[in-house]
TrEMBL record:
The lineage of its organism: Eukaryota, Metazoa, Ecdysozoa, Arthropoda, Hexapoda. Residues 1330-1344 have a biased composition (Low complexity). Residues 963-1022 form a coiled coil. Residues 940-1242 form the THO complex subunitTHOC2 C-terminal domain. Residues 1282-1291, 1370-1381, 1486-1497, 1629-1640 have a biased composition (Polar residues). This is THO complex subunit 2.
Amino acid sequence: MQRSTDRMRRLKKLKSVTGAQDGVGGGDAAATATADNRTSESSDTNGAAASSGAGGKKPGTLNPEVFKHLDKSGRSEFLKYLKQQLQDAADTPVYDKNGVFKQGISNAIYQLLWQTLRFTHKKDIVLHLLLEVVALHADFPSLIVDVVNILDSETSLITDGFQEERHAFVQLVKDLERVVPESLLKERLEIDTLQEAGIVKNKSFYSKFIKVKTKLYYKQRRFNLFREESEGFAKLITELNQEFDENTTPESIMDIIKSLIGCFNLDPNRVLDIIIESFETRPDRWNLFIPLLRSYMPTGAIICEVLGYKFCHFKDSRTPRSLYHVCALLLKHGVIALNDVYVWLTPNDGSIKADWEEDLADAREMVRKLNLIQTNKKEDEKDPPPPPSVKKFNEEKYNANQKFGLCEALLKVGDWENAYKIIQKLPEQAVVLQEPIARAIADLIHLSVENIYYKKCFKAPAGRRPSRNRLYDDSKLVAKMQAKEFGDLRKYTWPMANVLGPAMHYDTVLMYKLIRIMRKLVVDMGVDSLNGPPPNSEAEQHYYDIMSSLDACILPSLLYLDNNCSMSEEIWAVLKYFPYHFRYSLYARWKNDSYQLHPNLIRRCGLAQRDIKALMKRVSKENVKQLGRLVGKYSHCAPGLLFDYILLQIQIYDNLIGPVCDLLKYLTALSFDCLGYCIIESLTLTGRLRFKDDGTSLSLWLQSLASFCGTIYKKYSIELSGLLQYVANQLKSQKSLDLLILREIVHKMAGVESCEEMTNDQLQAMCGGEQLRGEAGYFSQVRNTKKSSNRLKEALANNDLAVAICLLMAQQKHCVIYRETAAHSHLKLVGNLYDQCQDTLVQFGTFLGSTYSVDEYVERLPSIITMLREYHINTDVAFFLARPMFTHQINQKYDQLRKDDPNAKKLTTTQKLQKYLEATQLIMNPIVESVRPLHSSKVWEDISPQFLVTFWSLSMYDLHVPNESYQREIAKLKQLAQQAAEGKDSNQSKNKKEQERYIALMEKLNDERKKQHEHVDKILQRLQEQKDSWFLLRSAKSAKNDTITQFLQLCLFPRCTFTALDALYCAKFVHAIHNLKTSNFSTLLCYDRIFCDITYSVTSCTEGEATRYGRFLCAMLETVMRWHADQAVFNKECANYPGFVTKFRVSNQFSEANDHVGYENYRHVCHKWHYKITKAIVFCLDSKDFMQIRNALIILMRILPHYPVLAKLAQIIERKVDKVREEEKTKRPDLYAIASSYIGQLKLKTPHMLKESVFHQIAERPNKDSPTNVGAPAAATRSDKLSPTSPQGTRAPSGAAPFYSSEQKSGIKEPEAKAASTTRESKSQRGEGNNVTLVSTATSTASNNERESKQRDLPAPRESQSRSKDDQQEQANNGSNGSRQSESRNRDVERDRQDQHDQRSISSHRSSRDIVRVKERTEAELHQRSRERSQRLEELEAQQRKREKPSRRGGEERIRHGDGVETVDLVGSTDNRHYEEFEGRMRDLSSVSNESNGSMQHRQRSHENIEFEKVDSKRRKLESSTSSSKKVEELVDSVKKARGLKTKERNKDKLSDEERDARKDRKLGRKRDRVDESNSNEHKRRREGQNGEEELRDRERHREKSPRERSHEKFDRERGVASGSRTEERQYISKSARSSRVNY
């Protein structure tokens, strides 16, 4: 097998030389031709050309045709070819002149011999030819034998069917003895071939050959044991361990070694081992031994094997350090490769990884046990000793690890590259955790930074000794690793430091060096926390290298350093130059990831957590100082763990906030910065609910954390950028919960409170200047906030967050409602979030306005138009933010105009005022024009853009000077100054300073008050000049309802709920408009619109808005009640003012004396307003809805100083609130608390309540025997108009009825007959030329005492409320004809009498469908029904007469006791569009405002009456034609009997008096309704013909309806749909109710 393999190898080699084809046998011509082609192509390199050849062959190649004619001309051509090949180089036939191998001759001989083997030519011819060839050159025999050797290999491999060629070859070899020498054949050919050819005839020749070969090559003739050749080895050891002089070279030693090996037959491998051992003893002569080993053994693998056997020998014992050292030196100088020697080291990598994971698991288990609580601990058992914080270094285990030892040795010789390869092969931090390896890396880092540290960072002391480390002896290593510039640090220093990681704590000096180098680098780069390095620069690379090193080694190493405060300060000196987001990312890895790298770190952190928990259990106000020092020590090394637990405790126990803030005073700057990150991380933790379980309020942990943030950021200098950016990011994500944090920060740091629970004194102080607001405007004195306020200002400015947060809060304020509602949040929570956005926005805007200079404020804030249009900010917020800019710009323009005037110093006060007005116009006109596109042109027809801008641009500071607040604060300061002067303390200088400070404050307050007075005077002059252009007068405009509507919608309502100060401002501004005698503005109508229906306003408010709305109502009521209390004040401030005009003239703009409201009529209006407020409040309290009840209670609390003032109203409110308190005691405790508080305060006010007669003049009771009252079952009156300027004074109404009367009860109606009679009485009292605005209404009380006692409370249902609105409309329509001629009144009286007569005989109204049925009935049936109806009417009239007497007696009794209530209806609608079309005619407010509301009812009832008349006329014809037959009389008698039985059964029912009266009244109501509608058609036609109402009806049909009309119609439609399934009786009840309501 071995011989065949050798043959194959030789065959392939010769084929590559000769280019012969490797074919099986090669016997065909095609194979030969192919071989010839390859041979000819490759033989052209020598430039020879063959003269012979055909078939287009190239010159220099042998023509295959030669072998066909070998016995003839082919022989000569063959020889000629060989001779030609010899011409190029006669010295050798194998190579040409250029030394390139020639394949031509070898190929020719090869083909010639194949001719013989294939039997193409005879063997003798070939042999003769070979003899001639041999004669050509002396090297041809050798060449021929080589070709034969190839043929031997080829023929020996031929099997199956080709044995003839092998036999031919054997015969050819036998005959070759004649051509080549036999010795040459024996030398070249195989032994088997020689034996086969018979050249070698000895059969044992092969065995002898093997023996000889073994003896020559395999028999050992060298010695590897000392005892075998002691002399030789002794001489070798002596030579290698002698003291070499300087002239000794490795070459000379190598010569000696070779001599000794040759002389004493020493084993070379043992000699190599002796050289390595000699190197171990003298490693300092590495410069001699390294070249010696390299020259002795060029292949490093053998050296590694020798070293590997040595390492294996010591695997069970301690490996000597010298072996590690030698191996490291060999690796360092590249004599051997790491991978070759690494496989010999023990233990394997798998066991090292397993040990590392086991250590980690043990550390985690230890921490887990520390957190366990033992519940079954016995008293005798002692606590186990605490585990060690750091596991001790196991030196024995370390010494058994050869990989660690080799890594240490590599580091000690400075071979960082190979050492790093070993570190990478093993688990992360498993190698560098070993102290020797860590210190070795630290030494290398020292070497790398030595030069640059003492050169650029720290001046070396004069007597500093050089390092004794052997690394410094290697000059090449020093030159290679030592950094000369900062850029060189990137090669070795930073990578080595990052690999070292937390193990750098073993060398704190190195930490200091690296930190100082980092600081020097950062300072030289010129970066700070706001400006980073330029991109794609070398400085940027250094920047991130420093961050990587801080993250990988510096901060984790700090976890090992106990109580090292200086190290923390050094680290902060570098970190403070990085932006907060980079620092926070470092803290995150430091706190959450770094401690998990090492088992020792896990143990240390577990023990630290245990100690921190024990420390926090002892925290109290008494031991703050002692525990504060401990907290400071813990914070130096592990601030993240400390703050996590502290924040957790604060979120659970909010009473720890104060002590904890005091504990933290010993923290370093690094710890404070880490605290800022921990706070943000605590806010962003997932898995915690931010709401309480009920989903109505924020969680306590969030509130506690927010309070802690405000306190800690105020007390200590912690960077705010991260927290502010977090809040901004939350707002971008439409999350407003974290605004609580911003509110606390602004409150604590800037002293700006967002509290809405301010006292009236504080609100008045807030109307003053900055000094007064600081002294008296807040609950806590604004002290020591200058520094913290500036820090907050700088944090906002540095990150451009001031305006961004403002705009985001403004946007979030209006989207939070929709977002939270879509999320199905509780309505209370939605309101709280909305209030939080609002309060924080106001607080933050106030802070910006007070902290930033006006120039800074103007520069940063976008323009008002940009906020309104681009950022989609609402008007209230936009003007709130832009308001400080307006005053500043006006003052600047004013100063500029004064300076530009040549007579600037001689300007009079009037001229200065004109300059100020001019400056105002220049500044505000562009704003006026810019707001014009915000609303449609229709809006600007009612109010001007200038008025809108004026209203929104002013503040309370511009309209009102709080003189009382100034005087009060100055008096306090005087008293304090006097106390300081009279102080008997020993420190007189301190008292003197205090006195001087108080005096300076008084002077500042006086100056501020003076400036504000001047400013308010300028503003009033400005308003005086602009007032005539505020409200535009349009022809035929009635009562200015549209103007008031736009004013309320665009100005008052949005602003009065913005802030508490804005609520006061709105009330003050309305008063200012009134005092300025502004034309086309009705003050009375404005107040009426505000007070008349506050139900929807109260319902739609949040809690904060309800508080502010209540303040607004309180301020408005204060003005109203001040005018109500004193007639002199009323005459002075209201009489002859345009705001109290009741009639508007188009032809003559000047009002007359009788066009104004009188004092007593004004008191009636005030009574009406109090009633309206009561009605709205009762409705809300009875609604059972949380929001309505809460808001109603809040508003009641706010308006308590001025409402209620009537004893009866107070009783009603008290009962309702007490009912709420009882119902909500267990259900909703917050409502219970508010209700209880209000009742307590209301009871304190009870002794000061007024009676009706004191509040306003009570109307006299109508005469008992008056013909108008005859036949009326219940007392009810229609509207009665009073003249405010009648000579007899204020005229009383015809009757009086309390607003809690029976008509307010659902289902109790009043007869129309009484209403009609009262109407006639009131009409008879009117004068022809009297135009009045006020309508007085009075009603009598119920019939019995029990019914009266049950009717004290006001109704709550919405249905009754909407009906009362219909009543107002109908009554106003009836009352609009009050100023008609006497002729029309007489006709009315006659018509009313006819109505009373018809009431007894006309049957009930039927629908058209019923009338059709009546036609088909028999005459007898119709006659019977008419008799029955007549009988029923007589019975009911008798019952009503009986009930009339006690009812009148009850009314007289109430009038005597002063319990009658007079109400005044000022206005019922807001549509005044038809005033312009009646020039020269005068109308009162009531008629004008109500005629439009009644137009729809006029048309509807007219249509119904026309249909009714047609049906009624047919019915009467049928009745007249019927006969009174006996059958009909019998039927009537039977019906009477049946009715009597039913009446008895009905009386037996257990019905209350109230229910029985209600049932009777409902029947009467149906009768009255039928009577009224039967004659209304003729009545109205007659009245319209006389009064010219046809034109009015046409205009009403085509006019545009007001918003209130549309809302009323919509409400009626909804109610109609809801009540569509009710019975016909219920429909009659609703009709009668609309006609019998008291006109409120």
